[in-house]
Amino acid sequence: MAETEQRKKIPLVPENLLKKRKAYQALKATQAKQALLARREQSKKKGPRFKRLESFLNDSWWQKRDMVCLRRLEVKPHALEMPDKHSLAFVVGIKRTDGVSSVVQKTIARLRLKKIFSSVFVKVTPQSLKTLRIVEPYVTWGFPNLKFVQELILKRGQAKVKNKTIPLTDNMVIEEHLGRFGVICLEDLIHEIAFPGKLFPRYLMVLVPFSPFGGPSCHQEPSGLPQGDGLTGLSG
Description:
Elements: H1 2-6, H2 15-45, H3 53-75, E1 88-93, H4 102-110, E2 119-123, H5 126-134, E3 139-142, H6 146-156, E4 158-161, E5 164-167, H7 171-178, H8 186-194, H9 200-206, E6 233-234
Parallel strand pairs: 3-6
Antiparallel strand pairs: 1-2, 1-3, 4-5
Organism: Tupaia chinensis
Keywords: Ribonucleoprotein, Ribosomal protein
GO molecular function: RNA binding; structural constituent of ribosome
């Protein structure tokens, strides 16, 4: 009996107070929902954002520059010769393409470099060299060696499976998507990327564009990464 008396009694809350608390919580939830809907409606009704005159002038300058570069390519289509010893290029987007010509924007999208400082592998062909010349003011690129390709795919390689980005750590994923082409493991994929052949575009579509390396201040990598010091075009 003494032990039961020493136990602390649980304080009872009146039923009407519990009802008031529940009603208050429901009211707050309703008010929060209404406030969210009101903000969404207000954002829809907002007028067009005004741009400064300098922004229009800057966009116009970049578009004119793009058109000049395209005309030069038409006059001198063979200005950039095919390299003899290299068949693979590594391209990094280092400048934003807001306000540039539609040709440049479509080319950047085709290269999958919409995100600044993202990077992709490109098979060196006359057509790909012409493509790189179109976006030359906005990218830097070079010729990677086998060690660089291997380290990059092993450390940063990712694949897109069912709208999800997953790291390339499971050979089952590679075999499932590329097994019919004879690629069943990560080593096979690295070899096919480093020494591109006819099926290179299919292998490349499995890889997600590589994430940024650290922006324009990154230096030369020991594995052969082109310098990212802000210089556009061919970096070696």
